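Lab notebook, bench 4. The sequencing result for the construct came back, and we need a structural model before the next group meeting so we can plan mutations. Quick request posted to the team channel:

Model the 3D structure of this chain.
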Amino acid sequence: MSFVPDLFIGQVISNDQLMKIFRCGRQGGMRRSLKTNTLVLITDYTDDTYLDAKPDKDDNYVWKYCGMGDNGDQNIDYKHNKTLYESNKNNEDLHLFKKEAPNSYEYIGKVLLIGEPKRIKDPNKNRKLLIFPLEPVGNTQDITDFLNNIGFKILLKEEIIDGSTNYLAAKKYDAILKLMVANKVDTLIGSDGWFFNSKGYFYNQYSKDGWGKIQDIEDKKNLFIGQNKYINPYFSASLVYSEQDNSNNMEDENKMGKFRLRTLNFKSYNVNYKIDFYNKDQELSGKGKFYTTLILGPNGTGKSIVLSTIQKIFLDMYLLSISRKENHAKDIEYELIYTIGENKFKLLKENGKPTFYKNDLKVSLKEIVLPKRVISCAFNIEDRFSTTSAKVLEEYQYLGLKNKKFKYLLENLTSNIIDAVLTDNKFLNDLKNVTEFLGFGPELKIRLPFKGNNSLEDMRNNNYVTKLLTNANEKSIVAADIIAFWKKYRTYNLVDPNNKTINYIENGLEIFFDFSRSADYEEMYEDFDEIKKQIKLGVFRIPDIEMKKNGKWFSIEGSSSGEFQYMSTMINILTKIKSKSLILIDEPETSLHPNWQYKYMSVLDKIFKEYNECQFVMATHSHFMVSDLKNESSSLIELKSKSNELVISKNINESVYGRSAEDILYEVFNMPTSRNYYIGKDLDEVLQAISLDRVNDDIRDKAHKLFSMINYLKESDPLKELIMVIYKKVTDIV
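Done. Here's the predicted structure in token form:
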């Protein structure tokens, strides 16, 4: 959902008010905020550095906004020029202000980029400027809702719908414009940035040029080309097609309640899987906590396949919802059922075609509410999860090791921490739960040592930095920005060396985060963004992340593999989690000491206690983790191979919380251990029942359980022969 500022068109505010409303930085004509997912644009008529022109009649009252860059030709890839240029595709909200007096910012409103930026000559310097055409959005409406509200008969009469195909007919764009005016709609919006406004400007990722003005384009098909599948509610093959219009009955997904998986049936590698994720006698409420499902089963039963299939199904749904082609679960036939609050959703794919259901009624994809985010985690370089880039899709986040080097892990962790600090005020407070579990203090340092022979003097030398950028073929950074950054922080440190978040250290840089000061960092976006770009540029060596332990700073690179795995996983999840997220973790016990495994679930409860609308699903072999699972907020399922072509799940209904390791191994994993008390107890009960001729169904179940363990016993073990004799005796008694 887009951020809506508490402002009216024409309202004048101060710079401090602007910062507070949009949670952005203090300076600059383009100010980005991750917290509000906005790019604030300020057209400044008090400074002639940039050539911002006021809207005029000759140019259809379009706002002409000058790009970033003080020196040389302005580059489309430079800093927020690129953010602005890709704003439609990336669903980045643009908000425009004009400044005509010091500390006075008049709100123009939310705007859209309506065309390719023009290159013009700078009248003050020998260079070229980028001029971005912007148009206020005004009153907006979703295109599918608009078409539903107009109705099929009127659309057919006006020839907006082709009667033979039910396709939208772009050649009748003028009829659409008249209906927009009649319904007081300034801009129609669709998925993946598609829009069409009352002046005829449009954006369509599938059109030849991407955007333009429909009146000026010869081929009018560019308006709707490739979009009928995603926005046309009267086209039967459309993902928004519904036999009845439910647009007025759609609920606010933010108020719907908790996300919970129910069942999954699918076929993979010629094996059918039938999985129940919950105990049917359990309400799945979790009593105010997030819900956890542990998946058990011998190797080869498909625990990892189940996790990756869930991930791939939702990833494809996310892609379809933004008008992208799905291809991750394309060869899988499936039925996935989940609930959000009181609503039940079913995603079904048969014969290659997806269909959607809400509360057992067939609906369009638009009426399906998906988890806010799916996060997949693994500490195995050969995991089965998809690795789609977060730049393509924010809703899916891959936090694994596949095809990654250790250097990437630390760089990625550093970037995630910085982004989370800028995005969510709760992040550092939640991170404190992780550090407390590990015995660390509520502080964090990121040290960035220069790479090779780089030095402070080099980073302030124009020739050196220019060569560095040329070798890296980097266009999003200019030498002047790098030089200004290092001059700025060297000066700050000399004036006040003890009270800065970003500090110059000998041969590098240091970032210090105090977990109690999260609100202080949001205005530092531009500086943090500069650091991230210099990391990618190769200015620094591998980042060094440090925590404080027993009053001394401690590098996590020197920690044990278990400490590093646990810390990096928890921090990464914290940087990405949202309400109603689904978190999939494959073998979380990897490298963890048994003590940590034993406390894993309870610490997870503490770390993510604010995310009670989420669900964690984990595949594990750890009996210690099972014994830390609380029955009222979890389910425990075991995968069983019924044949070479069928895997089913069995819900383990009894409470396992707090039970001993031997008890869990025997009762849950069907695994005997030497001198196991519980095996002896069952043997005694079965032998006594045989001797007293009191064999009943309960005794037979115990005998079957004992018999299921013989494959784990050595041939020389006398217990194996005893169990076989007992089993034969019990099964012979009718």
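The chain has five domains: 12-136, 140-249, 265-394+616-651, 406-558, 672-732.
Will bring this to the meeting.
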